[in-house]
Design brief:
Shape of chain A: globular
Largest interface: A-B, 52 and 53 residues
Strand order of the largest sheet of chain A: 2-6-7-8-14-10-11
Distance between the termini of chain A: 57 Å
Oligomer: homodimer
Number of domains of chain A: 4
Strand content of chain A: 15-25%
């Protein structure tokens, strides 16, 4: 494969074992609670029945056009799970689903249960709204994962036939449609299919979709006209990232999940084709997103209206949409850019999203989910919640895109932790794990022992087959002011060794070498850019990669009235009682006594603020102790 | 009239002359700019043509069902204007409008141009939505005003016929409808009609409407069923204050303007019938509104969605709807309660709304209007404004209820300033004016010379026809900690004299008596109740009755980042250059330098805050110097 632009390749999922530490129990929960829960929900709401071509809908019954993707993402997660934790019963259930799929596929390769069941004559007539290509993309990703997990080629063959049908339908030819998906996803899936099969036509199709997007005349407009639509479209072209050719897009616009998948695909295609212009667009859009449109939690897409990006520095807290899927998409994009650039800036964002805006998407028991991830909650009487979602995790959603997306990310977490490059092994994420990597022509076993992010020490054992010179690149997180590294108990002078966010230890590594990374985790009071007016006068607490929040369960109500004392220390301590154990931050604040305030709505100040204790917990753990207020950005003064 | 419950009666509009000072030029502008502007707009958009029964709408053309009221309110304002400033040309135009009305009236007394022109067969079939009774109410108010202004009985006769038709249509009788208006207004208008004519049936009809409201079975539901509506109603009964009988309502719910008009009518009917239960409801609802649901500006109805009350302490600033009409309604209600209770608490709220959330409804040139009155503005790219309205005054609205409502309030301002009661004259509002009142059986001329609210001194000359003992009640505003009063240069000891918010000077008043009231106007930093989470850590500046705000024009952008220094003084000074002259507040603050912050979206604090000058202007004057940020609640620290 002409991998011209990519400096690094992710570790194989099955080559990384994650047990113990922070993530071990969480991944076990994902495998043993979340995945079966999702399977039950898919059965309960009839999504699996669709693959059985059962339940032909009644007239006027609403059938979600995207439900094939819900199954596909769960399937993909299950396949990843098989890679690290074989489960013959699960594998048999996946096999039988593949059988259903085979039967549901049309003679010409077409595969989509919505159109098959509801309006078979209208396939490929509404790319803008109907998610056909999106669903196909998720099925392709599932097929590639299943093939990699089991070696069974059946699902991959089905999806190759489907992709071939799509490639015949769409393209620049006279009898082809010059369309592209309303919801991006298939582009990155086609690159995966190309990598799995070596068939370059899939890469070309991905390229075609990316290059057509935003071209004039606009396909979605022509298509709407052809359908006889007379009303103006329900969303502008920017909602679909189709307002401009992608190479001309300066800012991240529209539906955030779509944008993340598109931007991920830009990197994938650039890497495989050597197209620097796509990479330049990705870098530019990256700067816009992470520099002006990203919550501290790694959440993106601030508005519930259109689940979308709005404008620079518009990051309201209690109406923060910050869809779990969008934070996941930011992980996917960041991870891809990281392989290309080998720059810790991308790993920092990947880690930020993972530990905060992604992990907040699932409850401590693994069977409750957040769709929106606000940074402040003020429970309201009645149902008019600022994000559109009740401020507590739900077991399922009308649009259940997030739960299986989260499950597949967690089930494949190992690949995000390590990479290899020419004579290089990189550690991006610190987590208790064992990785078996190919470095400089031999297998190297890297083992991390750590309680990160609760603790700041990471012990890495390096076990190559034989001594050899190569570079071990250890991420020095952007949040850490004074990292320390010792090799075989010898402290290193990191000056000159740290470049682009990694301590790059080039040396002759021998069996038995031991590295110790220490990442002092001071509690940091983060400020937001002055243009983020919502956070003016407020700070957020961060320790290591974790963003913290105040909850009513610990601090009582009226959290906005709490002011942290600027000159008093904040203390971090492990609380083994809190939701399986977590480091909590405690400190001193001041607040008014609402009980003593009296009846007046307004009165002349100043009102005495009494000393109070403040206790903050990791944002990812919020909402596991009943409904109540929650606040990330806290007054200081 | 059995005026059993009311302690005071408002001064007659024509008995109060307001010239010079704060209000003189503003009322002149209302008369010479606003009223002609509204008349032109009513002509431009065809609202006046409807009275000519012209412009029968095309099929599917949307005709606002409430447009008779737009004309009526303007007509009422014009009639008030005639009382103090005769204008034969204007009076002739009003006369000819009355002619049109006479022609538009049906044989049976019915009068509504929407139904006449659009769906004549459907009259009285949709009280919930169609504003028939609301429009009739405003026409009645206009007729009463016109009669009082001109002595001409024609319009009054028309509206008596209309009211008689309504009284025949609605009532407890077998062939009558037990309905009541979806938008309250006619209740208070019918009491005015009763007072103008002495016909008790109009009072009884008002009472009927109030008593029926909220009764089971719900009229709006029965009516919808009778219309064959199958879809659920677009709003709950609480939107119309029809969820419960009014005597059982504990909190102010639903559409704020409707609520204000209903609550005003409760007082009117209570006063005329002696019904203490209505007064108790009014008091209870008053406490809820002013104690938990009112902006510092006197704005009420915090949500654009339904233009309505939401829940206790829900007072967001940048999405504050706080419709101008609702603040006007709060003035109307407060004024009524003030007459009953003779308690400065009501005058305080009346003044708060008048000087802030009402006056902000019109631009400095008198021809631009605010519908929503937010307490913070952060201009956004694109059109998605938090209130639904662009953050600048408009010359007209699709629903133009506010401009003529404002015009009629200002044109009748004199009646809000003074009252008389048994052997008592009350001064509620301090403004440069001359009032001719009947007190203790003789005429008393009260003259105020003052630049209030710019200056704290008010000189009142008392000129009775002959010496007599009676009480001059001078309002001691709630915002003023240490008021002073001198009579004939003799300072009074106010202890024992001030009761229920008034210095009650009972003495033998003689021609030539001079009273001087001094109301020290310190700049006050107001705090909001801790449960108003939006304002935690923030203060609002108030001086006298005026709430202040920061504008970008004076302070640059990122106003939320400005923190007033708690320990530094704030200075008030008159700036004759500012919009015709106004007292501005200046002081010291601290803020971050956005220019030096750099590119980072987040970074560890603390960031140095540099000293900065802060300049605040009266809230009522915001938005007259271009579009920019505006902020009432400012950080302190």
């Amino acid at each position: 494969m002409p991998d011209t632009l990519r400096r690094l390749s992710p570790a194989g999922i099955r080559d990384v074992t994650i047990e113990g530490g922070f993530w071990g129990p969480r991944l076990a929960l994902n495998r043993t609670a979340t995945l079966p829960h999702i399977e039950r929900q898919l059965e309960r709401v009839g999504t699996l029945d669709a693959w059985r071509l059962k339940g032909r809908p009644r007239p006027n019954e609403h059938v979600p056009q995207f439900r094939d993707s819900d199954v596909a993402k769960w399937f993909e997660a299950a396949a990843y799970s098989l890679m690290t934790h074989p489960d013959p019963a699960l594998e048999r259930r996946l096999d039988s689903l593949v059988n259903l799929l085979a039967r549901a596929q049309w003679e010409d390769g077409y595969l989509n249960t919505y159109y098959t069941l509801v309006e078979p004559r209208n396939r490929w007539t509404n790319l803008r709204d109907m998610h056909e290509l999106y669903c196909a993309g998720h099925l392709i990703e599932a097929a590639v994962a299943y093939h990699a997990a089991t070696g069974n080629t059946r699902f991959l063959e089905i999806m190759c036939r489907c992709a071939d049908h799509i490639a015949a339908t769409f393209g620049p030819g006279r009898n082809q449609k010059r369309g592209y998906p309303g919801h991006e996803e298939i582009e990155l899936a086609l690159v995966k299919l190309y990598r799995a099969t070596g068939e370059r036509r899939y890469l070309r199709l991905a390229e075609f979709f990316i290059n057509e997007r935003g071209r004039r005349p606009h396909y979605f407009e022509q298509e709407a006209k052809a359908r006889g639509e007379t009303r103006p479209p329900w969303a502008g072209l920017d909602y679909f990232q189709a307002h401009l050719p992608v190479r001309e897009q300066q800012t991240a616009e529209g539906h955030a999940v779509r944008a993340m998948y598109l931007f991920s695909a830009l990197v994938d295609v650039a890497v495989e084709t050597g197209d620097q212009t796509l990479l330049a667009a990705s870098r530019r859009l990256w700067s816009n997103v992470t520099g002006r449109r990203m919550y501290l939690t790694g959440g993106v897409g601030s508005s519930r209206h259109g689940e979308r990006f709005t404008f620079d520095y518009d990051l309201p807290n209690d109406s923060a949409y910050a869809e779990t899927c969008a934070a996941i998409g930011l992980v996917l994009w960041s991870h891809r850019m990281l392989q290309v650039e080998d720059d810790g800036e991308y790993a920092d964002v990947m880690e930020r999203a993972l530990y905060n805006g992604v992990l907040s998407g699932v409850s401590a028991d693994g069977v409750g989910f957040s769709y929106a991830n606000p940074l402040a909650v003020h429970p309201r009487p009645g149902g008019d919640h600022p994000t559109g979602f009740a401020p507590e995790r739900q077991e399922w959603f009308v649009c259940p895109c997030c739960p299986p997306n989260l499950a597949r990310l967690l089930a494949s977490l190992g690949q995000y932790a390590y990479s290899t490059g020419p004579r290089q092994a990189s550690v991006h994420l610190y987590l208790q794990s064992a990785a078996d990597l190919e470095v400089a022509g031999q297998r190297v076993a890297l083992t991390q022992r750590t309680d990160y992010p609760w603790q700041e020490r990471v012990r890495i054992s390096v076990e190559p087959e034989r001594p050899a010179a190569w570079t071990l690149a250890l991420r020095m997180p952007g949040w850490c002011a004074e990292p320390r590294v010792a090799v075989n108990s010898e402290p290193l002078d990191l000056r000159g060794v740290v470049r682009k966010g990694y301590a790059r230890l080039r040396r002759r590594w021998s069996p038995g070498d031991r590295v110790e990374v220490t990442l002092p985790m001071k509690v940091v009071r983060v400020e937001a850019h002055p243009r983020v007016w919502m956070n003016a006068g407020r700070v957020a607490l961060q320790r290591g990669p974790l963003v913290y929040c105040l909850e009513q369960a610990d601090n009582g109500p009226q959290l906005d009235d709490v002011a942290l004392l600027a000159d008093r220390p904040l203390r971090a301590a492990y609380d083994r009682e809190l939701l399986g154990g977590a480091v909590v931050i405690t400190g001193r604040g001041r607040r008014r006594d609402a009980g003593r305030w009296g009846e007046a709505l307004y009165r002349p100040g100043p009102t005495r603020r009494a000393a109070s204790r403040v206790r903050a917990i990791p944002y990812a753990l919020w909402g596991n102790r009943g409904v109540g207020e929650m606040l990330v950005w806290v007054q200081e003064g």
